[in-house]
User: Which sequence fits this backbone?
């Protein structure tokens, strides 16, 4: 039997500090004109020194639980999508589960970089197919500014911080949306195009200072080309296998990396720009959190409401990409 995968709640947390292009210009050799014309980004959120991926994820989780009426002890799984975990071990999911008062559920992290939310939705769908009684808290949270090299102006202007928490289950009285289909893909021969080091790849004797590869490094031009091509292709494949065309879509919610990428994907798909949701201007690229942050804002501003069919698409390091059909 095919069980439904229902999105029943969506909570959001974004840090207070709005790091504007003007403030960035005091830190890096750049200009508001360069950043806005190349990326469409005007500001991004930066977490406070006492915050982390786990604290942001926890705040988003509390909001999602509160809006759904679900108690922490009712959760069967806590999954966190992040490429900026608090620690290599334990998982950010375990840290959040402990703080939330859900110490005995299955808790682990996934990392598909900016595709983390859509990959995670695919995972939640598989879990619910095998365990229809599961109640999954799925957090997408990133502290990207912690891994920016503030001497590398080609990357540090692009990213921001934030967290979302989604609750998925197979049954719900008033779900926000139903997952209709999701497609996940990758070309891992291109894994070196976007990297964040700091893992166990090499010896790091105690006391030795970190090197540039600790921070995000990206071959921006190459990534741009792949992003546009793969995101458009993934959308077309997903629509086709569901017997739909782009005209059946009420709203396209793409990964919020760069306005030029978003525009290029929209025009390859032939969708009106009025049907393409973007908030990259205010948040920059929040990696795994980007699509659900955009979905939450679209819901809050009533751009998105009951009865709408939504196509989400993401792209990130790996290289990974994914497309998702949601019926609201
Ligand atoms: C990053 C990106 C905006 C750079 O734009 P670009 O047109 O490719 O720019 P380049 O990197 O070729 O650099 C062009 C010039 O701008 C300069 N430059 C780069 N960053 C700058 C900044 N923040 N401010 C001012 N100048 C900058 C470069 O030094 C270079 O100068 P030069 O020609 O004198 O050497 C673009 O490649 C991009 O959007 N890539 C996709 C990145 C992305 O979104 N990745 C995430 C996917 S999940």
Assistant:
């Amino acid at each position: 039997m095919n069980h439904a995968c229902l999105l029943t709640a969506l909570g959001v947390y974004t840090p207070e500090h709005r790091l504007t292009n003007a403030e960035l210009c005091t830190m890096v050799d750049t200009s508001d004109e360069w950043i806005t014309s190349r990326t469409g980004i005007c500001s991004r959120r930066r977490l406070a020194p006492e915050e982390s991926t786990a604290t942001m994820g926890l705040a988003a989780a509390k909001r999602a639980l509160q809006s759904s009426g679900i108690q922490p002890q009712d959760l069967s799984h806590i999954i966190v999508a992040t490429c900026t975990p608090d620690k290599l071990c334990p998982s950010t999911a375990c840290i959040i589960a402990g703080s939330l008062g859900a110490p005995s559920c299955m808790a682990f992290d996934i990392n598909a970089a900016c595709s983390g939310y859509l990959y995670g939705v695919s995972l939640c769908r598989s879990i619910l197919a095998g365990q229809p009684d599961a109640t999954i808290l799925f957090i997408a949270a990133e502290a990207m500014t912690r891994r920016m090299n503030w001497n590398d102006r080609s990357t540090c202007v692009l990213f921001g911080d934030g967290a979302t928490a989604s609750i998925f289950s197979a049954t719900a009285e008033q779900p926000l949306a139903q997952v209709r289909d999701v497609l996940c893909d990758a070309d891992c021969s291109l894994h070196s195009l976007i990297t964040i080091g700091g893992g166990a790849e090499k010896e790091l004797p105690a006391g030795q200072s970190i090197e540039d590869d600790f921070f995000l490094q990206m071959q921006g031009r190459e990534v741009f080309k792949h992003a546009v091509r793969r995101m458009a292709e993934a959308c077309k494949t997903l629509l086709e296998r569901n017997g739909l065309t782009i005209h059946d879509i009420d709203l396209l919610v793409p990964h919020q990396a760069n306005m030029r990428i978003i525009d290029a994907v929209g025009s390859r798909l032939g969708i009106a720009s009025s049907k393409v949701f973007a908030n990259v201007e205010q948040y920059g690229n929040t990696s795994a959190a980007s699509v659900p942050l955009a979905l939450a804002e679209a819901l809050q501003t009533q751009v998105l409401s009951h009865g709408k069919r939504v196509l989400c698409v993401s792209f990130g390091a790996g290289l990974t990409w994914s497309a998702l059909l949601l019926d609201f």
